[in-house]
Structure formats: C-alpha cells, structure tokens
Amino acid sequence: MKIRIGIVGYGNIGRGVEKVIPQNPDTELAAVFVRKNPERTIIKTPGARVYTFNDAKDLTDKIDVIILCCGSATDLPEEGPKYAAMFNTVDSFDTHAVIPQYFEKINKAAANKTAVIAAGWDPGIFSAMKMLSEAILPDGATYSFWGPGVSQGHSNAIRKVAGVKDAVQYTIPSEKAVKEVRSGTNPQLTTRQKHTRECYVVPEENADLAKIENDIKTMPYYFADYDTTVHFITEEELLKNHSKMPHAGLVFRGGNTGENKHMMEFSLKLDSNPEFTACNLVAYARAAARMSKEGNFGAKTVFDVPLSYLSPKDGITLIRELL
Amino acid sequence: MKIRIGIVGYGNIGRGVEKVIPQNPDTELAAVFVRKNPERTIIKTPGARVYTFNDAKDLTDKIDVIILCCGSATDLPEEGPKYAAMFNTVDSFDTHAVIPQYFEKINKAAANKTAVIAAGWDPGIFSAMKMLSEAILPDGATYSFWGPGVSQGHSNAIRKVAGVKDAVQYTIPSEKAVKEVRSGTNPQLTTRQKHTRECYVVPEENADLAKIENDIKTMPYYFADYDTTVHFITEEELLKNHSKMPHAGLVFRGGNTGENKHMMEFSLKLDSNPEFTACNLVAYARAAARMSKEGNFGAKTVFDVPLSYLSPKDGITLIRELL
To answer: What is the pTM of this model?
Structure first.
C-alpha cells in the first residue's frame, strides 16, 4: 500500500511535490488543498482531486501524510497546528528565529500524529550537516554560505521599495571567503565578507532610479550590511533571464584533533530551489508515516529521524547496497 | 555521569580514540584492552588502566561502551561478537563485501546490548551521505572518490611483493573525472578513469626494480585496473616524507526533477585518517550508550541512528543552535 500524500498549498513547492511524487514509487498523491476556489486550481495528477482547506477534516482516513507547502510568515503558524492535529505532517518552516516556538505549538497539536517540521534544505538537511559535523569534530568552527541563487525574501523586500515594479535578488558567496574557509584556517568573517547581493530591478515608469538604488542599499538587515549591486532592467529581461529559481549553498566544518586538521564540506547546487525542497519534503513524509505507525508522535526535526526512515529500501538492502 | 569508554586494541585508531575523548566532555576513558603484555602498553590517560582481552568479562559494570579498534580482516570477526555479548560496542568494520554477515553475527551476539558496526567514515558517514542523497534524489546517480590519501590496504599489498622492504601507496582521484561528475552530467566512468595510484617503494638491497614495478602494476584487483606510478625511494625519504596518514574523499549525488538538475556533494579532507575515524567512533559511542539505555538492542548501522544521538546537546539546544 502506497503512502497517500496530501498537498496543502499549490504554489512553487506544492507543484514541486506533485512533480516529485512519481519519482518515489512508494508514494501517491491523494489530494491537493487550496484556501479557496478549488475549481480554479488545475493539477497534473490523474485521479487526485482539489479540495478547500475546510474539506480536510473529512479526509483523515484517505491521507497518510500532509505536506504543508504554504508560507512560513503567516500561513504555517496558523495552518500547521490545525493540520498536525488531524494528520501526520511535514513542512519546510524556515523562520529560523521562531522555530522553537513553532516546534512547541506543533508538538502540542500533534498529540496522536507525527509532524516533521523545518524539513527543507535550510533549515533541513543543512541543519543536519551542521549537527553531524559538529558532533564528529567538537573542536572546530562551522560556516554556512548561500548561493549563487535567488533569495525570495530579499526579492520581496526590493519589490516593496517605492518605484519598483518587480525585482529578483541573487545572493552570492564570496569566492575569497569560501576559499579561506576551505583551506582550514577557520577565519573570523564579517557578514560583509561572506556574501554579496546582486539585484535586478524593473523600475516603474519615471521612477527615481538613484532613490531606488539608495533605498535598497541602505535597507537594514536585508542589504545594509552587504556589498550590494543594483542593475536596472526591463520587464522583458527579467522574465527572460531571471525567472528561474536556482540556488546553492555550502556548509563547512573545520576541526582538529590536536595538531591534525580535518575539513568536512557539504554543498548543494540546485536548478530549482522549490523542487529540491519538495524532494526533501517527500523523503521526510515517508519517515513521518513510519514514525507515526510506530507510535512516535509529536513534533520532530531532521535531528530526530533515523536516516533509513527516509529511504523506501529495507534495512538489509540498505546495508548491502549503501554501507 | 560521563560515558565510560573502553578501547580494545591500541594501534593508530585506538590511540586516536584516546586523543579524541577529552574533546568530548561527556565521555571518559575507563580502560584499554590489549591482547597480551598489558604492562608493555603505555597509555596517556591518567587514571585509566591497561588490561588484557581476558580481563574484559570482569569489567562489565565499569564500562558503558567498548570501542573496538582492531583490524577488520581477522580481529573484528573474532572479537566483535565476544565483546558485543558483554558490552555496548562501536566499530569501524570496513570489509564491505562481508558486512551483511558481520551484521548478522553481531546482531545475534548483542541480544541485550547495542552494537553500532561500520561507523567510521567509509563505511560510516560516507554511507550515510550516499543513503541520504539517494533518498532525496531518487532519480540520479551516486559517485564516490577517495584520496588524495594513503591506502593502508594497498600499502600492505606492495609490502608483500618480493624485494620490497617498505612502501606507501597514495590513491589519487582523477581531477578530470571529479570535474565531470561535479558538472552534473552523470557520466559513465571506468575504474581506471576515476583514480590513479602512486606508490613510494623502498626496495631491498640489490632487488630487481623492474620486476618489482611490474609485479605491482600487474597485481590483480589492487593495481591492474589503474594507472599506477612507482617511485623508488630510500628508507629515510619514506620516513621523512610519507609517514603521515592523510586521506580525503568525495561523495556526489547528481539527480533531477524533470528538466531541473541538482547536485549534492560531500567531501572530507583529513590530516589523519585514523584520528578522524576515531572522532566518528566516539560520536557513535555516545549514540550506542543512549540507544542501549532505551532498550534498543542489537546490531545497528549509521542508517539506524537518529542524528541527535551523536551530539552531547539536548533536543531543544540543537533546535535553537543548529536548526
């Protein structure tokens, strides 16, 4: 019997999950849930239906795991606990600062269900790599770099600047900083030394370009602490050259055993950030289904899941093929 | 109360474990076990004592986890099950071909104990990376490269060649092959295309160098399938330039979601192969102690261990600091 998956929210990640499910032959898409107007959402999976959020409570016996593919800012804090009370769930909640509170809320809600939170790639397997490498090399330093790739959060921040019609922001890791970290010197690096930011901005007609550029570059937290470059382009150029969502990232752990140095490096290069996030969510949905069957309820993170639970292969096959 | 660790076998890995224990403040060295003449083994840890293998049965209440630091060829198959019947154990058994049989033997022995097998870096966390990345990107290909670094197995094979006094062998990954894999083309690669082998050989006096070189290069399995270079050097040069045990390795998973390609890469660069192996063993010893407390007995692999069990930090601290 396949793991029956429900998708909540049909944006980039939700569509990614739908695309990835057929690559995982032990899973199938049972239903997609949208906030309103399900009749206007056309999905690609024959046999699966689109429902509203309100219909979910009537489908608890038709779905094994819900993958929550809605935003972390307002949707997940509201919808996450509701779904976790009714279903096993997986999400890619990514507001780092409030994850402990989110964990607590979900943990209370998931009294009889298993809810894996923050199981994308960052937070998610990047966090797993940081944890694993720190445990193996306790005497050392951990570094993370992001990009080259599109940051949705920073792109959205630019879109809110007066005079901006549309924008895409690329986060670029500093080659110099990456090289220094990789060499094993465990350097002290400032925010500015680690990443630069490249902004492709479509201005509104007759907008004050100098003001837009200044508003972006001085924006606290998002840009003020970085070397930021602003390129003004046309809407056509943005659509043609900047509509993909690639991303990349690096986690380093440089540590030592006395006089001997050791470097662990984990890197990702992704053509599509949301589709790779979807890959992670489906693997953790498999784990959620299994942990739930074992009665291992409550909120879980990537730290709690035995790696074998992510694979459709059984224990002895994993040992034979991969150990 | 600290996790009391016993080391069985005081070679490179055993000494590495002793060196790493103080970096893990929740662990302490309780005892070292050697096959014979314990009075001749001088260890560095004040308060810990050296015993013979035979003494172990009298120390079951003094030790929480035994780290088995003896060879995979003959020692572990014999000693592993004996210790796993009496203690929680961790080892770095690395004879890939017979791991399933070893797992079965240990699993039977560890009826009331937890025994984590093959928990070095390969097999070990390299296997974990292969498993994790395959589960996340089911439609793809996995590649492993080893080196640049010393292979003990290949060095030993050369030492058995007639006319060879001593030797060190370096395994070198092909830069071209690594570049091709990293680019995401998922190429088909032969054994010869992936690695080359560099041998530093000290010949015996008046040995036939041409014959030694030919014997090495044509040795089945070890060298015949590789482009191998043989350098003859003096004993002094070997001692001066080739007595360290660095190693390195790479695991790649190139996969796709439809038209989009994704690359996961995990790499290690190690000044000391045995000391990094020791780092892994101590982290998995922590996990073995915890699984045993929970009654989760039997043979385990890196696939079975939740990552959080490797860390001395508690769950909420891990979430706050690392998720």
So the answer is: 0.96
